[in-house]
Design a protein that fits this description.
This protein has about 400 residues and is an alpha/beta fold. The chain has 3 domains: about 40 residues, no CATH class; about 210 residues, Rossmann fold, CATH 3.40.50; about 90 residues, DNA Methylase, Chain A, domain 2. Helix content is about 35%, strand content about 10%. It is built from 15 helices and 8 strands. A 6-stranded mixed beta sheet has the order 2-1-3-4-6-5, sandwiched between helices. Strand 7 and strand 8 form a beta hairpin. It is globular.
């Protein structure tokens, strides 16, 4: 069957075709043809094509057999988002013992430890490498001198001693077709831009086309939480021009902060008079100096500030008003879990202090889910599955 071009249609209709074909894991032209056949059957009965059951290329309902690894995994926000897109996690690394405990309770897997001690050849082959790696400065001093002496240079020299160096070694050894990396918003300005230049340059030198964007999770959860997401597509697999667009926030009304609150929170989360007095004096002192340091009293019908890993100390960045005559309170761990978009049925198996740290360091699964959907949409456009189960690149795809 000749491939049909889908163009010159209403944008809303085109979006419906794109989303429906993605949900069914079929090419757009196949979805359109299926809809036309359905209309024809309603009018004239079964077609010759239906009676012959002529085979044709299609993608199965469950989607592509995407395998991914979850590095610097934390408590698994990346994993949840990718699993919701049909992915299967085949390897995990996380060094923090308390995060490992939560991860095991949630997924049944005990993550491997320090990434610096993991040999690349012990990591299974995978389609997507997901990693929320830490932001560290790099040193480029001496690179020119080492190059003149014939010594190793490039990312092995520039990134040596950093955790990104170990991540880059894994990427170089395993050659995953897709990278999904996450970091703090100021990654691009960190160390006067040098950190970002090294990271992007390293990925491009390794043969990846890089897309990046700062995304605020406030469209998915009632919290301002800006993080930079970096997507890399192996140019040897997909070519240099694979279409990819980062997701837009859902069109539905944004969630409100009050929607994540428990109706009867334990009294222990209400601030003591001593702590509440200290926070007010601290805010007044800095206000007098003309800066904005201080506590954040959250608008119940709006969104909160960013939940940080230090929330356990005083809860000052996200305080919850409790009416006149009563001190504000901090979030309970279950509310913090909900504020991050994690399901309620995931148990909290660590102390309050560790729970705040874990949620404050986590990635919002709903954002990863939306990004993963766009990654899968790009891959689906690039590949087809034949009746015998083989994956083929579409016409015009770059050959490896």
């Amino acid at each position: 069957m000749p491939q049909l071009l889908i163009r010159n249609v209403d944008p809303a209709l085109k979006r419906w075709i794109e989303e429906s074909s993605y949900d069914l894991r079929v090419a757009q032209w196949q979805f359109v043809v299926s809809q036309l056949r359905q209309v024809q059957r309603q009018r004239t009965g079964p077609t010759l094509f239906d009676m012959e059951k002529k085979p044709g290329p299609s993608l199965p309902q469950q989607g592509l057999p995407v395998r991914f690894v979850d590095l610097f995994a934390g408590i698994g926000g990346m994993r949840i988002g990718l699993e919701r897109n049909g992915g299967k996690c085949v390897f995990t690394s996380e060094w923090d013992k308390n995060a490992q405990r939560t991860y095991r309770a949630w997924f049944g897997d005990l993550p491997h430890g320090d990434i610096r001690e993991i040999a690349s050849d012990s990591i299974p082959d995978h389609d997507i490498l997901a990693a929320g790696f830490p932001c560290q400065p790099f040193s480029i001093a001496g690179v020119s001198k080492k190059k003149s002496l014939g010594r190793e240079h490039g990312f092995r020299d520039v990134t040596q001693g950093t955790l990104f160096f170990h991540l880059a070694k894994i990427i170089e050894a395993k050659r995953p077709p897709v990278l999904l990396l996450e970091n703090v918003k100021n990654l691009k300005s960190h160390d006067r831009g040098q950190t970002w230049n090294v990271i992007r340059g390293t990925l491009e030198d390794l043969g990846y086309t890089v897309h990046h964007k700062v995304i605020d999770a406030a469209g998915w959860v009632p919290q301002h939480r800006e993080r930079v997401f970096i997507i890399g597509f192996d140019s040897a697999v997909f070519g240099p021009d694979l279409p990819f667009e980062f997701p837009s926030p859902p069109s539905a009304p944004s969630p409100r902060f009050r929607d994540i609150l428990d109706p009867h929170p334990p009294e222990k989360y209400t601030l003591t008079d001593h702590l509440w007095g200290y926070l007010q004096r601290y805010a007044a002192k800095h206000q007098a100096k003309g800066n904005g340091f201080g506590f954040g009293m959250t608008d119940l019908d709006g969104v909160s500030r960013t939940l940080s890993a230090r929330y356990y100390k005083d809860g000052s960045e996200i305080l919850i008003p409790q009416g006149r005559g009563k001190n504000p309170r901090r979030l309970s761990p279950p509310e913090a879990r909900r504020l991050m978009g994690f399901p309620d049925d995931l148990p909290i198996v660590v102390s309050d202090t560790q729970a705040y740290k874990q949620f404050g360091n986590a990635v919002v699964p709903l954002v990863v889910e939306a990004i993963g959907r766009e990654i899968m949409r790009s891959i689906t456009r690039h590949l087809i599955r034949t009746p015998n189960g083989c994956l083929l690149k579409r016409a015009g795809s770059t050959k490896r």
